[in-house]
Each structure stands twice: as structure tokens, then as C-alpha cells.
Amino acid sequence: MRARPTRHARAWIAPAATICAMLAGVAPAAAISGAPGGTEAPSASLAGGSAFGAPAGPRPFVTRLSVPSVSLAGAPPRVSVQIAEAGVGTVYLQVTITLIGSRRPAVSAVPGWVRTGRSASVRWPSGATLAPGSYRLAVTAHDHHGGSLLRGAHSAGVASLLVTAPAPRPLPAPPTPSPAPSVPTPASSEPGVPTPAQTAAAGAVFPVAGPHSFGGPENRFGAPRGGHVHQGQDVLAAEGIPLLAPIAGTVSSTSYQAAGAGYYIVEHTAVGLDFMFAHCQAGSFLVNAEQAVSAGQQICRIGQTGDATAPHVHFEVWVGGWQSATGHPIDPLPYLEAWDHTPPSG
């Protein structure tokens, strides 16, 4: 049977146990690193965390940015951008254009999540415009972990843009003036041919003794006709009005042409010109061939015989003989106007 300690023995054992425990706690701290059961304390450099300034992990960066250096004012230019990041499939993209010197963006586009490694075209808001000036275009992006765009010397994601005013539109060229209508060579330019003024001064008489007009372009000398040109000037007047010899002379012929001049008279004048009067009224001849006539003498009446659609006289002036091989017609209008002392009726 084990003896139990007495009361005095228990009182001595308790302090001794306490001292042993204290001694046991001090021993490990004083242990030598090479002693059995000893452990080397870890150094501060191996504690948890990373060194100051080390990269926090992969970040997106620009691999391609296409921006024109100069653009015309108006809609923003076409821009495309390509973002890359190792092990990341998509990044969130935003592009902003800011007028240099201003903190407020001029226009901003948010393509949103785009695939890495692929070129993304920027679609600007509808109706967005840029005024002339110098701008800065900046790309921003972040990945799903909040990693923002890495900016470096070769992948800053920033570009300059100069917006210029469009060149002024050239003024429309002035309309090309219509060529002046060809004017037949006046009789006065031909040697030996009296001018209209000379014949008027010599007492020439206007051939139509009543209200009249000179018609339109189709009634002029040189107007086109089927297969030929008009060789005289038409003077429109009411049927039956007397037709007079303008200058004294001799009647060369009186004749009829059903499909052309109708009843007509030819006069060779004392000044060397030949006159031809066409479309006389049927039965109105008052002169015969080889008959001398004076200025102002009635020779027939206005009609519309032959190829005529209205009453008028077709009046021709010839130099060198009417319808002769050496003759040619000239414009009668200057002569008629010089002889006409009454305003035309139309």
C-alpha cells in the first residue's frame, strides 16, 4: 500500500511543481539551434504578403489602335481598337474623345465587353459631331477582376486627332452663254450693194400697205426648211392688203408654183437688187413681165396661195440676179425695217 503524503508534504510539493513548470517553459527559448528538439525561428522576410511595388497580376493592354490623324468636322472618324490580356476572354471597353484644353468629353462610346485579341470597331452615338479643333482620344478598359488598362510607351491607348473644317464648296461655274444667232452678212458689206439706209434715203417704200408683223424665228431668213433653208423674210398681214413695189424697176416675171411660192412676182430694181414676192392672192396681179414699175406702185394683193398656212408675203432680196448661177440671196429684214415707218402689229 502506497503511503499518502502528509499535509505538510502536500504544501511543499505545490510550489515545487510550479517552479518546475516555469523552468520547463524557459528551456526551449534558451535552446541552441543545433541541440536535439530545437527549432529555428522564422525570419521576417518569409512572412506572408509581397514586396512593395510588385505587379498585382495580369492587366489588359492595347495591341492595336487605329485612329486617323486628321478628320473633317462632322461625324467622328472611324476608330478600331484591339485589347489583349493573358488568360482573359473579354474586357470592358470605353473610348472617349476630349477637346484639348477641356475636361469635358466631346463624345464618348461604350462598346462594353469585347473579346480580347480581336479588333473592335467603335460605334459613336447617333448624331454625334466634332467641331474643328485639336482632340485627344483615350481608350479605357478593365477585366472581370477590376484590372485596369496597362499603359506603356508602346501601348498607351491614347492618340491625337486634328479635326479640320471642310473646304468651301466651289462656286458653280457661270452658265455658258448661248451662242449668238448667226447673222447673215449684211448687204452693205458687199461692194456695190446699196445699204438699207441708202435705199431708205432714196425713197424706198415698205411693200405691205397695212398692219403687219415679221412673225417668229421660223419666218426669218435662214430658218430651216425640209431639205433647204428659208431664203426670205415673211411679212404676215391680212389677205387682200395691197402689195407694193419698194423701189422702181422692171418686172422680170409673174408665175405660179402650186407646191411652193403660189402666185409670185420677180422685180429687177434700178439699184441692181432683185426682189421676189410670193403667195399673192389668186387673180390679183396688176403687172406683167417686162413692165416698168415705180416705187410704191401696187403689184398684187396679200394671199396664201401655194405652200402657205396663213396670209403673208414671202419677200426675197437677191444680189447678182434672182435664181441665177452668179446670184445669191441676202437677209431682207434689215431693208424691211429701214423702210417700215409704222410699228408692226405683232
Structural class: mainly beta
* SS strand fraction: 25-35%
What's the shape? rod-shaped
Task: Specify the helix fraction band.
Answer: 10-25%
What would you say this structure looks like, in words?
It is a single chain. The chain has 3 helices and 19 strands. The strands form 5 sheets. Strands 11, 13, 14, 15, 16, 18 and 19 form a 7-stranded antiparallel beta sheet that branches. It has a 5-stranded mixed beta sheet with strand order 2-8-7-4-5, with no helix packed on it. It folds into 2 domains: 104 residues, Sandwich (Immunoglobulin-like), CATH 2.60.40; 153 residues, Glucose Permease (Domain IIA) (Distorted Sandwich). Strand 9 and strand 10 form a beta hairpin. By secondary structure, the chain is mainly β. The termini are far apart. It is 10% helix and 31% strand. The radius of gyration is 59 Å and the shape is rod-shaped.
